[in-house]
Amino acid sequence: MSVYLVIYRPDGEIYRTEGQEDDRYDLSERMNSTNRQITIGRTDPAGQFDVGTDIKLPAEDTKISRKHFVIEVIEGPYYYVRESERPSANGTILHQHLSGNRISIQQQGQLLCDKDEILLQSSQGQEGSPNQYWKFQFRDLNATATDEPVRTPEEDKPVQVTIYEYRLGDGLYVSLDSGKPIRIDFTRKLFKFLEYLARHSDQTGNNNNNHRTVSYEELIKEIWQGENHGDRKRDLSNIVSRINRKIRDNCSSEKIPELISNNSGVGYRLNKCTVTD
Prior knowledge:
Blueprint: E1 3-8, E2 25-26, H1 27-30, E3 37-42, E4 55-57, E5 69-74, E6 78-83, E7 93-95, E8 102-104, E9 110-111, E10 117-121, E11 133-140, H2 153-156, E12 163-167, E13 171-175, E14 182-184, H3 188-199, E15 214-215, H4 216-223, H5 233-251, E16 260-263, E17 267-270, E18 273-276
Parallel strand pairs: 3-4, 12-18
Antiparallel strand pairs: 1-2, 1-11, 3-5, 5-6, 6-9, 7-8, 7-10, 10-11, 12-13, 13-14, 15-17, 16-17
C-alpha cells in the first residue's frame, strides 16, 4: 500500500468506508489501468443517486453532494483531485502541505502531493471551528525523502505571465506574455455575472488582487432577478466553471490562473484582475 487516503470525520475520528479493513483507503490497489478514478460523495439511503460513488459519506451530512469530488490517476502515476461533473455548491478545498495554501478545486483539477489534505464542509460541524470539515489526507510513500512534490516535465515549465483587465461595460481582456491582449466573449448571463462582480469588487488602480468577496446571496439576487431564487449556489458554481473554462479554451492553455476564486462558504472574488472604466 504505497498511495492511500486517511479519512477524518469533522470530530477528528478516523472514518472507514464499508469493507475497509484498516485506517487507510488504498488508492494504489483500487486505481489501476482499468479503473482510473474514484468518486467521493454522500450516501443515498434509497441507493438511487449514489450509484458509482466509491467512498460514501453519511447521508445526514447534507452539505456533501452525492458525487462531490473525484480523484483520478494519470500516467506517472500522478494523482489529481477535481470537482465532479456536477460541482457541489459548497465546493472542495485543497490544503497544500508544502505551501500551506488553501485553494478551491475546480474541474480542471489539482495535482496531489504527499500530506496534502482535501477538505469538505460538514453540516455536522460548527461554522468557523477546526471541526468544520471532513478531511481526506493524501499519502504517497513513493514521495522523495526531501518531501518535495514530484511533478511532470510539463508542470516544471514557467507559467505564463497573465494579466486580466475587465473594462466595465465592455468585457474581459487577457494579456499573456506572448502577445497583445485577447478579448474573451461570453454569453449574456456570463457577462452579466462578470460585470456585476467587477462593479462590486471595490478595486481600482494597479493592485489587481485586492478585491472583495461578493456573497453568493448578492450574486443570486442580481443574476436571477424576479425568478425563484431557491438554492442557486450550484448554478453559480456552473457559471464560474464555464467562465474559467472559456478563458482556458480561448488562450489555449490549461496553466492560466483562474479569473474567479471561490471563498468557500462566503462567495466569489476576482483574481489577478484590474478593473477599469
